[in-house]
Amino acid sequence: MRPDGAGCGVACSYGHKSLALHTIAILSPGDMGHGIGAALGRSGFDITTCLAGRSARTQQLAQRGGFRMVPTLDELVVEADIVLSILVPAEAERVARAVARVISTQGVDTPFVDCNAIAPQTTQRIEKQIVNAGASFIDGSIIGPPPGRGLPPRLYVSGPGAHVLSALDGDEITVKVMGDRVGDASSIKMCYAALTKGTATLQVALLTAARALGVDEALTAELATSQENVLRQMHASIPALPANAHRWVGEMEEIAATFESVGLSPGFHQGAAAVYRLLGQTEFAHESPESVDTERTLEATIEAMVVLLSTLPDDRYSE
Fold first, then answer.
1. Kind of pairing, strands 112-114 and 137-143?
2. Beta-bridge mates of residue 253
3. What string of DSSP letters covers the chain?
4. Which CATH superfamily is domain 190-311 in?
5. pLDDT in tens, 26-37
6. Domain map of the chain by residue range?
7. How confident is the model at residue 149 (pLDDT cuts 50, 70, 90)?
8. Does the pTM exceed 0.70?
């Protein structure tokens, strides 16, 4: 939180202090982050980010989302009333460490909200970094597509002081406060994405196997008869998967770790991660979510998987 206590947004009680949410920093304005930032900007919040070292695509998304650019991470964290981390899972801990360093060296107590698709044990490691640096931590997760693409995304939050995020609840973002336990918001994301993104990899795998085995036409006919809704959903969603595959490998690995932590096999989602790695090597993986060819068919996507598999060594899954 800014040392001068500035902030003309919604005032909320945070522990023993009053936190006025006005300036919200988002790291980083990717597909989800820029959508969340744009929606919050339309609600009257001042949305900031730091683009040092970021790609041209991220810079374009930040501009499209109406973000105010701050030149350094130090200035961003000092100026913000709260920081939302919205990243690929593999970057979550690195960015948290960088923010913790600023909190410690600048002597600020800017609350940090991790909104990433990470295992609860990863969340707890990040919490320790932020709290040890001298700031408050809130566990968060986002379920659903970015604002404007259907049902508003649900921002689940948990941990001491999580209720401050209720100020962000509106027509475009639904905030759901789960309670005071850090890890709960991350856990619900892990279980939900285990179904949604995990199921997508099972569908890709079985369709690829059917194509490679030469029974794809017969399988499609059977699905059209007995699983019509599932087949329709596969036609609608699978062609866009290569554009997101590189981001979802880490998410599947975090889900695998979550399952293993409660005594379940991590194998389900280790396999899902492997499918996303393959999708990320197909000829369509160069696309971004903004540039996906909406005319590409399910059949073309699966054929790209079959072609890729034919170029890989037979023992690639050997220990």
1. parallel
2. none
3. --TT----SEEEEETTEEEEE-EEEEE--SHHHHHHHHHHHHTT-EEEE--TT--HHHHHHHHHTTPEE-SSHHHHHHH-SEEEE---HHHHHHHHHHHHHHHHHHT----EEE-SS--HHHHHHHHHHHHHHT--EEEEEEESSSTTSSSPPEEEEESTTGGGGGGG-SSS-EEEEEES-TTHHHHHHHHHHHHHHHHHHHHHHHHHHHHHHT-HHHHHHHHHHH-HHHHHHHHHHGGGHHHHHHHHHHHHHHHHHHHHHTT--SHHHHHHHHHHHHHTTSTTTT--TTT--TT--HHHHHHHHHHHHHHS-TTTT--
4. N-(1-d-carboxylethyl)-l-norvaline Dehydrogenase; domain 2 (1.10.1040.10)
5. 998 988 999 999
6. 10-182, 190-311
7. confident
8. yes
